[in-house]
Model the fold of this input.
Amino acid sequence: MAHTHSSDATASHVTASDATERMATDGFCLIPGALEPDMIERLRGLSERKLRSEEQGHFRRYAHHGSLIPVHVEDDPHADLLTSPALHTAFRDLGFTDPRWISGYVITKPPRSPGLWWHQDWWAWDHDLSFAARPAQVFCMLYLQHTHEGNGALRVIPGSHRHHHELHDTLPEPHTPDIENQPQDSLSHLPAPGELTIEAHAGDLVIGDVRVLHATHPNRTDRPRTAVDLLFAPHFRDLPEEFRAHYVRQFCLPEAGWWREPGHPLRGAPVGRVLPTYEGPDHPPVPYRRRPRRRPATP
Done:
């Protein structure tokens, strides 16, 4: 039977050590009430503006995910969010040494939409960094309304960021037509041993290692369910050069090299300090592999 991890059960009782332990052992943590009411309202406004700009075909294309609408630094209130004390207090408590923002999306699951399939979001499984204890990349889900099993809450398999799980051997490659076409009664969607449902309220923050296996419940209600998803490299300066060179070229970011342009508005701005920069040599692209592989045997 799946269990529920709810902010109701943990509100005002989550300590920094609790969150750190959950990130290390489970691959995710929930931080209740991370956002102030004013920021929640501003993010709702941003989400509504982004959603109005999309054609209906977008929502049909991303029925499983919910919308995947990119956000950029210039999108109000994104710069204020990226530099907010609440976010960086959470990062500090989790031991993130140099968090840099990579990309972000408004994710709205339409009414009566199917669940998202089981998957993980790491993309460089041929690199030894994939097996490090610390995450190279994390997602930060900021919920803008009460989110529960009935309207598309997140499902996670604790510990699957570091330990092999049977689904690693059976799931199609993430974000491909193969997995998109999996029926709702397939292993890609069915309950999995040990899974948890994360129930969240408006203003709650869920931070997860992108290697953790996760999915969502269907949205069985007549209303959309909205969240903002931010991706960060939590230990950016410690990453191998090829990863730092990769991350500065992400499409949600300003054009790489902005930090060398005299007079660029981001130079010296608070938000500029949470964007990735890189001054090393050019590197070929990091080999791209979305399917997990088992940890290499030690000699």
User: Anything to note?
Assistant: The first strand starts at residue 3 and ends at 6. The chain has a mean pLDDT of 91. Residues 80 and 271 are 8 Å apart (CA to CA). The chain has one domain: 3-274.
